[in-house]
Design brief:
243 residues; mainly beta; Jelly Rolls; 2 domains; six-stranded antiparallel β-sheet; four-stranded antiparallel β-sheet; 3 helices; 19 strands; 35% strand; disordered N terminus
């Protein structure tokens, strides 16, 4: 098993998947490099796949005999938070990381006291149910173990889940994926005012959505349209509330 301290030294030398627009043009130097699809990865003896924040496969880059890995993808595999601050062009790695701006290829925000995850909040945010689980057989998506998830394989019986916001928060960030089928998700408040709608497909990967919950006491996330047999997967360790 690789210790996290060692992992930080390794990932600090790797590349971060950020857009070229996030860095001043004068700091970019063109090179000739190659995407390397021949490499395979294991983490603690388990086969793993490098993916971006949306669950899409990403490849290492080989340049001048050295292979570079996307630091965010490696951080996700090893449960090490990685954030990029576009304002200062700085990368932060490890438990002290905070979100400071655009992340280019997808948002990865480290939970904190001002951004508690739904898993951290427990029953104060979501009541316990059989659809919330920490069973390792059910918490893995595309090679990543999210530790605690809401997973609904029976939307005809359980069409929504509730998040208690109690007028304390400004934003609800949800990450969602479908394990199969297609669904339309409608997010609304206690007065049935629609706050957000989105359509999900199984091949879409993990999708993040921010919902404005200022002045809202409770949020309902409902599968309003769904294919028979579709399965909704919501990681509670990466879904969070923002004060």
């Amino acid at each position: 098993m690789i210790k996290k301290g060692t992992a930080l030294l390794i990932t600090a030398t790797l590349t971060l998947g950020i857009g070229t627009g996030a860095i001043a043009a004068t700091s970019l130097q063109p090179i000739r490099a190659y995407l390397n699809s021949a490499l395979s990865f294991t983490v603690n003896g388990t086969s793993a796949q490098l993916t971006d924040a949306n669950g899409k496969k990403v490849l290492p880059i080989t340049y001048n005999g050295t292979t570079y890995l996307p630091v965010r993808a490696v951080g996700q595999l090893m449960d090490i938070p990685v954030n990029y601050d576009s304002a200062t062009s700085s990368i932060s790695i490890g438990s002290g990381s905070t979100s400071g701006g655009s992340t280019g290829g997808g948002s990865t925000t480290t939970p904190s006291s001002s951004k508690p995850t739904l898993s951290q909040l427990g029953s104060t945010a979501m009541e316990s149910s059989s659809l919330r689980t920490k069973d390792p057989a059910k918490t893995v998506y595309k090679g990543k173990d999210y530790k605690e998830v809401y997973i609904n394989d029976q939307p005809q019986s359980f069409r929504d889940f509730q998040v208690m916001t109690d007028n304390k928060y400004s934003t609800l960030h949800l990450e969602m994926a479908l394990l199969s089928g297609n669904q339309k998700i409608t997010i609304y408040d206690g007065d049935r005012t629609v706050l957000k709608t989105l359509s999900l497909t199984a091949d879409q990967g993990m999708t993040g959505v921010d919902v404005d919950v200022k002045g809202v006491k409770a949020v309902f996330v409902e599968s309003t349209e769904y294919d028979p047999g579709s399965v909704l997967f919501v990681p509670l360790t990466t879904s969070y509330l923002v004060r």
